[in-house]
Structure formats: C-alpha cells, structure tokens
Amino acid sequence: MKKIAVVEDNPDNRLLVQVILESLYKVVEYENGFTALAGLPKEKPDVVLLDISLPEMDGAEVLRRMRADPQLRMLPVIALTAHAMSGDREKFLAAGFNDYVTKPIVDENVLLDAIQRLLPGERPVEASTRHEPSDFNPDAIERLLKLGGTKFTLEMMEMFSSYGATKLADARKAQQAGDLNALAEAAHPLKSSAGNVGVTGVQELAAQVESSARDRQAELAGAQLDQLERAFAAALLFLDSEKVRLTKPPS
After folding, report:
1. Rounded to an integer, what distance in angstroms lies between the CA atom of residue 175 and that of residue 172?
2. Residues 227 and 156 both lie in one domain
3. pLDDT at 235
4. In principle, which of 22, 72, 206, 219 could form an S-S bond with 66, CB 3.0–4.6 Å?
5. Comparing C-alpha atoms, which of 125, 110, 103 is closest to residue 53?
6. Beta-strand relationship, 47-51 and 26-30
7. Are residues 151 and 111 part of one domain?
8. Residue 131: pLDDT above 50?
9. pTM, whole model, 2 decimals?
10. How many domains does the chain have?
C-alpha cells in the first residue's frame, strides 16, 4: 500500500484527509514542519500533502528544506492552501511543488486525482458523490456521513466547535492588542474548518477578517470579527441540531 504524508496543523483537516485516504493509502501525519522534516526520511512516503500556512515554519520553507535534503528532494509534494487566487497554481509549481489543492476540500476526488497523477501505475478511483460549492452547503454533513459514518461526523463537528472557539478567542485577543498579523493568522484556519462542516457563513467572514487584517484595515477587521463571532454562535446552534438529529434513536 502506498504511503501519504500529511503536514497540517489544523486537526479537523487532518482528520478529514485521513478519512478520505485511509481505505486507499497508509497515512502518516505531522502537525508542523519541524516534525515533518524529522520524520519524513524515516517514513519514506510516496507523496506529501503540505499545508502552506503552518506555524513557525511555513510550507514554502518546509519545501525549500526538503529540496535541499538528498533524502527528500525527489518526493512529490502537493501544496494545500486556503489561499485560492488566480495564478496560485503557477506560483506554487514555480516554487517547486508538484501540484496544488485548495482547502476546504469540498470534493474528495480533486485530492485523489492530484495524488494519483503523482503515483505511476495508480488506477483512477471511481468518483464518489461530488459536491459543488455554493453560498451554503446543505450536503456537507451528509458528505461526512458517507465518508466516515456518524462517529466521524460528530467528531468533526466537535473539533470545529472547540478549535473554532479557540481561534476566535485568539482573534479577539489579537484585535484588542492591535496585532493585525496575529489576527490574520487566527482567522485563516477557520476558513477550512468551517468549510469542512458546511458552515459557509463562518467561512466567508473568516476570509474577510483575514483579508482586512492583512490589508492593515484595523477598523474594518474589527467590525467583521464582530459579525464572525455572531455567525459562529449561530453555527454552533445549527451543529447542535444536527447532532441531535444524528444521535436520535430511530422511531
């Protein structure tokens, strides 16, 4: 069985990728670039999925160090990023990545196709249910159920609730301190986390907060953060209702 390494600091993204890949590949996980650089020579994966926005050492620097290491330089590496902008694919390929996949992963076949292109002799996996992005994704929970069942779906919801609350608290603390860089970094992972469970209102507002903070628009970012907190509270109510639905005994 081929081995895929996932370098991603966001726990719900790691869990989602694990469930998508585990029936087809052996998956090894790393939370940051330092542990990845230490572990990859021992694990010898066939493909690496590398998040761009890692703490302390970003994905671009991890890739640079991999390409300078004789044990790692030939490993195929797919960039995972929530920064989806025109020209990104060309930029990442020019930087040395072999492919590029955006987060949140709303269609698992996009990820599988990217991996299979880098593994000679791999048979294409039959396409499963495909979901198109929209203003609100009512099928997100059903997709999680099909991927990993009720327990996995509940775990993803719990992870979003806990991780999202932590990142929102970090964002508010940064905003109050006037630290726009920290505010952007706190808002960034909320985009993919919210997308994973279909809470696109939170996803879109988190993207707005991050963008305004990076553009040094402190007042606008603060107002958007207020909206994001309200959207997050509403999202928790929605997820609570979904949990009740999923755990309700059949009549």
Report:
1. 5
2. yes
3. 87
4. 72
5. 103
6. unpaired
7. no
8. no
9. 0.71
10. 2
Residues 14, 104: one domain?
A: yes
Structure tokens at 56: 């302390």
Task: Name the residue type at position 134.
Answer: S
Query: Nearest to residue 191, comparing CAs of 150, 230, 232?
Result: 232
Determine the structural domain holding residue 242 and report its residue range: 140-247
74's enclosing H/E stretch is none
The domain that holds 82 is classified in CATH as: 3.40.50.2300
Q: Measure Cα distances from 245 to 90, 143, 160 in Å.
A: 44, 15, 18
Number of continuous H segments (helices) and E segments (strands) in the chain: 9, 5
CATH number for the domain spanning 181: value is 1.20.120
Distance, in Å, from the CA atom of 105 to the CA atom of 225, rounded to the nearest integer, reads 24
- The amino acid at 166: T
Count CB-CB contacts under 10 A for residue 6. Answer: 24
190 lies in the same domain as 146: yes
> CA 190 to CA 104: how far, in whole Å?
10
End-to-end CA distance of the chain: 42
**Residue 32 has which token pair?**
């940051």
**Token duo for residue 152:** 């996995």
Which residues lie across from 154 on neighbouring strands?
A: none
Angstrom distance (rounded) from CA 63 to CA 50: 8
- Written as one letter, the residue type at 219 is E
180-196 and 140-177 helices cross at what angle (nearest 10)? Answer: 170
Question: Which pair of structure tokens corresponds to residue 118?
Answer: 């880098």
